[in-house]
């Protein structure tokens, strides 16, 4: 019987697996260089105590350089240009979502997420509980900086991971790009439909839950200039958490195509989920919603775009594709247009009466203050006076009391309640730091027959606000109408007002000139 040649063939070097192509080896070296650079930047940020939220577009030149060095520039541009443009379009979409909510006064939401969070966490709020644990630490220096670093870098991570996918599993890159874009635009839909107040804002701006330290704002100490002022300005983009969804999408994709080698990506995703809660940026509810979004998108894309996970070695021999470049340029132009709309429409948070009654009334001591402000803005001064007077009893911080007294004084004065206006504004007299409130107080004194108090206050104001023309104007006006000074003195004041900035002083000079032309000389003639 003939001897089987199989054993001999196995040991024969001539029939061994072919060596890896030089281009593949070069690509792996490029990937190692990119990942090393990425990690080095993060380490340097920690070492030099520099933190900033870095725009995704800032890493694109690095990815482009990697493509050039690997000899696959055409393939990179053809495969990536629409993906990168769509990511940038999302950034401007975030700003537009906020601008529309602000401009159209669309409903914001808070109560629903707190109810669900308490149900999910057994009556607790996850960010609040985690920060209470943080407060027990003897030293928070390194945990704070570690989680801020994770938070600020994760948007760059998905681009670096995308480069790895593109280099090692190019047939799967299209599915990866669609997964990421599906998550981004699914999140964007959430920002339009349910603009939700994040934990730090619920705690610090609306006082619905105990205070939460917004560590991101505290530690970010490097300003990264942005191309458009309207870029990524949405402070109420909490539901779902795209910060949670993007790493989840990367982890799901990594497990599908890399199996055991996906462990670092999974660990990174978990760290991001912990970070956004630790930093007070998201509720656990937001995080779970983001993970669910990523899972749904992953399932849909997996069925829509079946791909092989086998590596295919390719060269850069294809032509430039016009269509992807044209689509990318269109997206960039549309993003710029969105930026212009955002800059035009953006405004303060739309704190409406409906929002206060649904989310704050009975839950926050700020409810009556906001209801008073809303009534004041609608010139319902009676309702404003009632609401602001109640909020004055509920808010004790000196800065809060100062603002409330200013609005309460205006509302009471315009409501004809001079005694209440004086009662609200007189505590401001001792501080002598709010010019508008003090001017109003002097008018209330005069209208209430307390002329001497008004003159004494205006003299104090002249000493305190030497650079402001209003005290000089009101003192001359009230004294002239009361007959304490004559026309010559008023003329001197009109001339003295020339030393102040024209935009402030000219209307006052004109008012005093009109007063003289009317011949109103008061009791002193």
Concise synopsis of the structure shown:
With 525 residues, the protein is mainly alpha-helical.
Which features would summarize this protein structure in a list?
single chain, 525 residues, mainly alpha, elongated
Walk me through this protein's architecture:
This protein has 525 residues and is an all-alpha fold. 69% of the residues lie in helices and 0% in strands. The protein has 24 helices and no strands. The protein has helices at 6-11, 22-47, 60-69, 73-103, 111-120, 126-135, 141-168, 170-193, 199-204, 215-219, 242-258, 263-278, 284-304, 322-345, 353-359, 367-377, 381-394, 398-414, 418-431, 435-447, 451-464, 470-482, 487-496, 502-517. It is elongated. The protein starts with 5 loop residues before the first helix and ends in an 8-residue tail after the last helix.
